[in-house]
Design the sequence.
């Protein structure tokens, strides 16, 4: 049962990624990307990471996909749909991608760790969210604050990049 | 099972990297970047499960925050270049070349 669920969700995520790679229409590519994100969220649920599954759906499939779709909405539809699909000479980047896949797959195949701790220590009082909150605000408080500043600076940078020039 | 999860992550990273290198449309390049970052974050969650340590899941939150800010800046660059060139083709994005 678990293997069947894993297969379906892995097919969803990898198939969505392949749809982004080969679809010509960018709106359809965004929808394929959302499908891929939902598949990954399902895999997170299988890995007992319920909080991260919800975060994946809200942040990636919600915020980021909507942000990309809104920016495509304000552009001219014919301009962004009429582009050719691939760069000239697409064979060399594809070969680099296959080589990267072979490299990472080799590492995944050779990788061996002690699996006796699998699935333990992920919950506190039966709640994954509570455990993440404990670790995040006890051990990772400074990186959390720095990440907040990174988000603020990135949004200010986006506003500065897109505003009209002041003469 | 661990190998299966790692192979899915490797496939996501490789497909995302190929999409960044191969596509012309800057919007789809940004989407491929998202998929690549998501593959790396998924590897963090997988290792968090199999090592029995919740720190990997916490790091995924930081990865998601960095991905969101990167998308915001990338879309701002896309809008700026669209205003200047009326195109989202990455081959037109070479104003610094001359």
Sequence:
């Amino acid at each position: 049962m678990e293997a069947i669920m894993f297969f379906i969700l892995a097919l969803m995520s990898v198939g969505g990624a392949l749809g982004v790679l080969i679809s010509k229409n960018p709106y359809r590519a965004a929808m394929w990307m959302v499908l891929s994100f939902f598949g990954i969220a399902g895999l997170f649920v299988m890995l007992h990471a319920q909080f991260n599954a919800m975060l994946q759906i809200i942040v990636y499939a919600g915020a980021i996909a909507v942000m990309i779709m809104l920016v495509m909405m304000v552009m001219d539809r014919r301009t962004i749909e009429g582009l050719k699909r691939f760069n000239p000479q697409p064979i060399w980047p594809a070969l680099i991608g296959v080589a990267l896949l072979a490299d990472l797959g080799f590492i995944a195949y050779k990788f061996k760790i002690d699996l006796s701790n699998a699935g333990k220590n992920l919950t506190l009082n039966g709640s994954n969210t509570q455990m993440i909150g404990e670790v995040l605000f006890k051990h990772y408080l400074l990186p959390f604050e720095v990440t907040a500043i990174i988000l603020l600076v990135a949004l200010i940078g986006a506003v500065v990049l897109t505003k009209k020039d002041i003469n | 099972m661990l190998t299966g999860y790692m192979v899915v992550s490797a496939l996501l990273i490789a497909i995302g990297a190929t999409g960044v290198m191969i596509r012309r449309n800057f919007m789809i390049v940004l989407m491929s970047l998202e998929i690549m970052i998501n593959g790396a974050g998924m590897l963090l969650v997988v290792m968090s499960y199999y090592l029995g340590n919740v720190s990997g899941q916490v790091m995924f939150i930081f990865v998601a925050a960095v991905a969101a800010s990167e998308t915001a800046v990338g879309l701002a660059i896309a809008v700026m270049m669209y205003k200047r060139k009326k195109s989202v083709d990455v081959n037109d994005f070479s104003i610094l070349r001359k």
